[in-house]
Each structure stands twice: as C-alpha cells, then as structure tokens.
TrEMBL record:
Stretches with biased composition (Basic residues): 176-191
UniProt subcellular location: Secreted
Protein name: R-spondin-2
Residues of the Spondin-like TSP1 domain: 114-167
Keyword field: Developmental protein, Disulfide bond, Glycoprotein, Heparin-binding, Secreted, Sensory transduction, Signal, Wnt signaling pathway
A GO molecular function held by the record: heparin binding
Presence of keyword Signal: yes
Biological processes annotated in GO: Wnt signaling pathway
Similarity field: Belongs to the R-spondin family.
Organism per entry: Emberiza fucata
InterPro entries the UniProt entry points to: Furin_repeat, Growth_fac_rcpt_cys_sf, R-spondin, Rspo_Fu-CRD_dom, TSP1_rpt, TSP1_rpt_sf, TSP1_spondin_dom
Region named Disordered: 173-212
Length: 212
C-alpha cells in the first residue's frame, strides 16, 4: 500500500500511514528510522551505517552497533569497518594501533608489527676504532628483532643508535704527545718577533744620531 506521493510502505507486509512499515517481507530488514521527535519503520535490503542485520524467526531487524566509532559491524560486539580516521583491530576501533601492532594504512587495519627486544648497555667510547688519543668519541647500543612483521612493507624500529661521549683516556699510554711541537713553533715565532723588534730599534737609533 502507498500513502500519498512517498512510497513509505515499500516492502512491507503491514504498514501504517503515520508510522510506516510495521512488518517486512521475507529477507528484508526492518529499520526504525528516527527524525527529530518522529520515527517510522522502513524495510531495507541492507542495514545503514552503524547497524547490522539480525535475522530472527519472527522478523529480521537492523540493530545498532554497540562499538564506539564503528561504521559497519558483523554483530553487536564485532566491528568490520571503522569510521574514517580509525583503525580496525579485533573487532574494535582505535585512533592508533595497540603496542606490538602496526597500522596498515591502505586497509586502515592493525596487523602484527615488528617486535624488538630491550636495548643493550652502551658500548665502549671510541673513535676511529681507538679508545684513546681523542677527547670525544661515539658509543653505541643495539637491540635484536624478536619477531618480524606480518608484512614486509611494515618497517621495524631502529635497532642501533649512537651518541657522543667523552673518552676516559684522552692520551694513549706510550703515545707521542704532539703539544711540544706546537710549543716549539711558539718559541720560534717569539724569537722572530724579538729579532724584528731589535732591528727596528737599531734603525731608530741610527736615524736619531743622523738627526743630531
């Protein structure tokens, strides 16, 4: 039966002019639509976003998904597709994937990620494979990959990192100390300055005698 220009009773077994469908035909889902203070029944082939189809001997119904941020669900407590910006993981929706899982952006799902072990202790401070002879060097620590990711496209966290460190021994035992060479250069420079000063002083004395 149709009431007015809008076929509000399409697919109904029984229908009300004011409330729409009351019972639906076989295989269709009864959906109670709310608009402001008004509600009316519809018979649909598939349930709208945020609802899932529940089949019963009495009548098939559209039931609301009870999972937060779910767009479509398989059952009351299992989401099959999350709303935009949320990742699906074991029937739930998350802004970010839980620890141990990585985000698969193309499907907006959380899959098993790369699992790494604990960091080792910081290694010996060295530079150019030497542990002395320099003031500063680098020390490194590492960690092992415990479990590889489910997909090769998912990167693992860094497994090695280095930082600047101060060497415990700046001068190597028995090594040559270079600073004396620098001191020798300073002495030579000082000697040259003294000779130049004496020469200028001699010129000044000679000039002074001539003027007298």
């Amino acid at each position: 039966a149709n009431y007015g220009p809008n076929p509000i009773c399409k697919g109904c077994l029984s229908c009300s002019k004011d409330n729409g469908c009351i019972r639906c035909q076989h295989k269709l889902f009864f959906f109670l639509r709310r608009e402001g203070m008004r509600q009316y029944g519809e018979c649909l082939h598939s349930c709208p976003s945020g609802y899932y189809g529940l089949r019963t001997p009495d009548m098939n119904r559209c039931s609301r998904c009870r999972i937060e941020n779910c767009d479509s669900c398989f059952s009351r407590d299992f989401c099959t597709k999350c709303k935009s910006g949320f990742y699906s993981h074991r029937g739930r929706c998350f802004r970010g994937c839980p620890a141990g899982f990585a985000a698969l952006e193309e499907l907006m799902e959380c899959v098993e990620g790369c699992e790494v072990g604990q960091w080792s202790e910081w290694g010996t401070c060295s530079r150019n494979n030497k542990t002395c002879g320099f003031k500063w060097g680098l020390e490194t620590r590492t960690r092992q990959i415990v479990k590889k990711p489910a997909k090769d496209t998912i990167p693992c966290p860094t497994i090695a990192e280095s930082r600047r460190c101060k060497m415990a021994m700046r001068h190597c035992p028995g090594g040559k100390w270079r600073r004396p060479a620098k001191t020798k250069d300073k002495k030579k420079k000082k000697k040259n300055l003294m000779e130049r000063a004496q020469k200028q002083h001699s010129i000044f004395l000679a000039t002074d005698k001539t003027s007298q």
